[in-house]
Amino acid sequence: MAWRVLVADDDPEICSLIRTILSKGPYEVTLCNDAESALVHIQQDKPFNILISDFMLPGISGIELIAQVRQNHATSRIPIVMISGHSNYAMDARAKAAGANAFLNKPFSLKQLRAIVHTLLSDPFASVSA
Q1: Half-sphere exposure of 5 (CA within 13 A, CB side)
Q2: Dihedral (C-alpha) 42, 46, 51, 54: value to the nearest 10 degrees?
Q3: What's the alpha-carbon Rg for the chain, to the nearest Å?
Q4: One CATH from 3.30.870.10, 3.30.200.20, 3.30.360.10, 3.40.50.2300 for 22-50+64-129
Q5: Residue 120 CB: number of other CB atoms within 10 A?
Q6: What is the DSSP string of 4-29?
Q7: Cα 60 to Cα 75: distance, rounded to the nearest angstrom
Q8: 74 or 90, which is more confident?
Q9: Helix, strand or coil for residue 103?
Q10: Residues 6+ apart with CB under 8 A from 31
Q11: For residue 73, how far is the Cα from the chain centroid?
Q12: Each residue of 9-60: pLDDT tens digit?
């Protein structure tokens, strides 16, 4: 069984990195370059097992994406990893308050991302610190 991962990030290099990191495991990765297309995938595709979203996205922010995912009964339990290259404690706190299970600073290592994804897929209600 492949775990379905949705990635929302406007940086093609980060998307490629995440796909490369997760392709070595049992993951099917769908990439989106903004929150709007991520919401379309979440609502129209087969259910996703995890969402990885950048904090700052064009149009709707990553925080708003999380809020909309959490407000929808059908998607409210999807584990969410928020990533950001401009991180600080306030961003981490805002992400977790919006419903993110984990916050990961860019640049992150293969090991960090794999560990967080594995933990959240094993326990979708976990809250992970990187």
Answers
A1: 27
A2: -50
A3: 13
A4: 3.40.50.2300
A5: 23
A6: EEEEE-S-HHHHHHHHHHHHTTTEEE
A7: 18
A8: 74
A9: strand
A10: 7, 9, 15, 18, 19
A11: 18
A12: 999 999 999 999 898 889 999 999 999 999 999 988 889 999 999 999 999 9
Against a cut of 0.85, is the pTM above it?
Answer: yes
Cβ atoms within 10 Å of 55's Cβ, excluding its own = 23
pLDDT in tens, 93-109: 889 999 999 999 888 88
Helix axes 35-44, 62-71, angle to 10 degrees: 20
Tokens 């976990």, residue located: 126
